[in-house]
């Protein structure tokens, strides 16, 4: 079955290559990726319409940084939150619980697990928990006014299904990206 296959070796070899970077290189790379994530996330506020297509890509820099190094990834995640506080404060409530948290979850899953299904479930769980916190605990209508902020098992099920599909898309995107990175990085 497709989901029970081991993730490609391209990702593992790229992780090993990045692990040979010095602490300074990792820190600089983390800061650059945090700036890129903040730009992507704030694009929806600066360029309504087109920016909403760009803003989901804020997951990619956090995911990449988490795969390189846990500490660099967490610093990048926190730095992105601080940059959003300055650049686009309205996005600060969304990023830490959705796109950023998905990047953290998938990055950790790629680092610790090899099977696609486990990586998918971990990423989907992080995203589902983040959306549920925003929707049910903080009462922030992250899914728009059509979705009630009162707890509903049906809504949570739909969010979980969406999170699985979204995480699956990111897993495939990451696999393709690392095949390309392997060819670029010596």
Question: Layout of helices and strands, plus pairs?
Answer:
Layout: H1 9-19, H2 23-46, H3 50-54, H4 59-68, H5 70-87, H6 99-112, H7 116-137, H8 153-184
Helix pairs in contact: 1-8, 2-4, 2-5, 4-5, 4-6, 5-6, 6-7, 7-8
Main sheet characteristics: none
Q: Enter the CATH topology name.
A: Arp2/3 complex 21 kDa subunit ARPC3
- pLDDT under 50 segments (min length 5)? none
- Number of domain units: 1
> What overall geometry do the principal axes of the alpha carbons give?
globular
Gyration radius (Cα, Å) is 16 Å
Q: What proportion strand?
A: under 5%
Distance between the termini: 33 Å
CATH architecture: Orthogonal Bundle
Class derived from helix and strand content: mainly alpha
Helix content: over 70%
Q: What is the chain-wise order of helices and strands?
A: HHHHHHHH
Q: What is the tally of beta strands?
A: 0
Count of individual helical segments: 8
Average pLDDT metric: 88
CATH class: Mainly Alpha
Keywords: Membrane, Transmembrane, Transmembrane helix
Transmembrane segments: 27-50, 62-87, 93-110, 117-138, 150-171
């Amino acid at each position: 079955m497709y989901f029970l296959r081991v993730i490609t070796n391209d990702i593992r070899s790229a992780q090993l290559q990045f692990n040979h970077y010095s602490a300074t290189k990792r820190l600089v790379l983390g800061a650059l990726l945090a700036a890129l994530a903040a730009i992507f996330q704030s694009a929806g506020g600066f360029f309504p319409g087109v920016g909403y297509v760009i803003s989901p890509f804020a997951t990619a820099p956090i995911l990449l940084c988490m795969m390189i190094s846990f500490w660099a990834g967490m610093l990048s995640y926190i730095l992105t939150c601080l940059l959003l506080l300055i650049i686009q404060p309205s996005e600060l409530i969304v990023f830490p619980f959705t796109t950023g948290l998905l990047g953290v979850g998938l990055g950790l899953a790629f680092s610790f697990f090899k099977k696609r299904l486990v990586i998918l479930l971990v990423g989907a769980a992080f995203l589902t928990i983040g959306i549920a916190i925003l929707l049910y605990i903080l009462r922030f209508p992250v899914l728009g006014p059509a979705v009630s902020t009162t707890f509903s098992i049906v809504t949570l099920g739909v969010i979980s299904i969406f999170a699985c599909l979204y995480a699956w898309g990111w897993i495939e995107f990451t696999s393709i990206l690392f095949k390309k990175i392997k060819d670029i990085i010596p």
